[in-house]
Design brief:
Layout: E1 12-24, E2 26-32, H1 52-64, E3 68-73, H2 83-98, E4 103-105, H3 108-112, H4 115-124, E5 129-130, E6 134-136, E7 144-154, E8 157-167, E9 180-182, H5 185-197, E10 202-208, H6 211-220, E11 226-229, E12 241-243, E13 246-249, E14 257-266, E15 269-279, H7 288-303, H8 324-327, H9 332-339, H10 346-353, H11 359-362, H12 389-393, H13 397-401, H14 412-415, H15 429-436
Parallel strand pairs: 1-7, 2-3, 3-4, 4-5, 5-7, 8-10, 10-11, 11-13
Antiparallel strand pairs: 2-14, 6-9, 7-8, 12-13, 14-15
Amino acid sequence: MKMHIGFLNILLIIFLPIKVYGSSESILIVFSGEETGNLEPCGCYEGQIGGISRRYTLIDLFRKKKDVILPVSLGDLPKTVGRQEEIKMEIFCRAIGEMDYILHNLGEKDIEIGPQLINYLSHTSKTVFLSSNVQLVDSFPAKINQYVLKECFVSGHTLNIAFLGILSKSLLNSYVLEYINVKDPVQALKPLVKQLQEKANLIVLLSHAPLAESVEIAKFFPEIGLIITGHNIEEPIDSITYINNTPVVSPGIEGKYIGIAKYSVNNAMVKRKSVEVIPLESKYKDSREMISLLKEYQQILADEDLLSKIPRVPLSNDLSYVGSTTCGICHKIVYEHWRKTTHSTSYSTLVNKGYQYDPECIKCHTTGYGYVSGFLNYEKNSSLINVGCESCHGAGSRHIKYMTEPYDVTDENNCVVCHESEHSPKFQYDEYWKKIKHPEEMFEKIPKTME
């Protein structure tokens, strides 16, 4: 991991109260979570929602109304492990720091990416990590808070809002238990809830757990006024549940939505006014601050040359990729037809957005990326840019050498590798096939150089 790890002798901290003053009328608890690596909509189709840039804009709109804004994160910034996900998590932490998030509750994906990164970020970023039932073992002295207490001044009153956070053990892979200690959520929360009842006007729980488990926690702790939960809830707007008047609400997945719980203050009493979940649609313009951060993210991918560092799978039967221009020597009519399809310009769509060094994008905009002899980068094999003939029919070296051998026939299974629900939800094989279907061709005499 390309980072300096600072080892401090701090294992667990109770975060000291931070005061928020102003001529405020309301408190807004803004919550997000389960981004799983989705910094922004990929741009593969119109109408996508989500992204840190739109989120920044929406939170900024709330701030301009001069309410007290308390943004919190439920957990799961990365999707999996690996260097690109580490970079994403660092960028996410910087983003929520710029949005003045008061905390990030640890999810299982945050844990799985590794204790070294959590330790590093807990000491170097603005992000305050929270978990009431998880702690890293002594060799990784990360700053993880059991609770966070916020002191606010609203409608002439000083109020304390307490935040707790748990992670369900059911979501953790067994190997991570080697470097973390996990308590039962209810047992971990009991003394903390009792302690905070005397200090806080409102207790909020970030429950990184399946919805059913969060509901049971709500039943056990009626003292908790708001539970922000998951897990993997795709339609959060329709999933708000009330247990003994306590809202159990999710921000959804992939950073597509943001939740808002609004409270007013009357005679020093906090009263809930509304709870809602809002889709981050295109009407919320991209913020300048987050656009700059996303460009920096792409530059880091380029500087570290991640394209060249992914594992490459060998092809069977000594096959190798030859490039579409080689195919066009014999298949001229088909090649000219292909040049008029959007497949033939798929690489340039990445270049235009500055994403040509992003391994997650490049695999579906080039030929053979991830395989030996496939696309690696533009400098080494520019003949394999774009979705070419071999993206559908397979590596063509054997067909070039033995032209009488039949070539692989494509079908829908090859299409859905890239045209899957996340990036191509409107994909219909029959309709899309019409756009790329080869015209009839009459083979010309094989060039002597290939006989």
